[in-house]
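FIELD: query
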Amino acid sequence: MKNRTLSSQTNRGLAVVALVSLATALAGCSGEPSSSDVDKTVRKYLSESQAQLQRLSGTKNSLGEIHDVKKLGCKADTDVSWRCDVELDMTQAGTRNKAPAQFRFVKGSDGWSLSR
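FIELD: result
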């Protein structure tokens, strides 16, 4: 009888360890945005901002052209948001420049977006 009880306790213990490991692995899936996520989200934001500016002004104003977006690093802000430092390589008003910037990335049901 004792062997059966010990075996049941061992199995329950292993099940708990497995569940905790699974929860930890799944929590890791909702981590910071990847370099690809950062690039895609910044480009999408600039494109949407540029379209909005053109609608409001009625002209073909340009916010610039992005050549490269390089993720430098991110720090957790909340459970679903990260503050990320990036290097933007852009041409604005005919001048190409690389400059650091910081954005707040928020994970939503449809992916990453930028927020204040």
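FIELD: remark
The longest strand covers residues 95-108.
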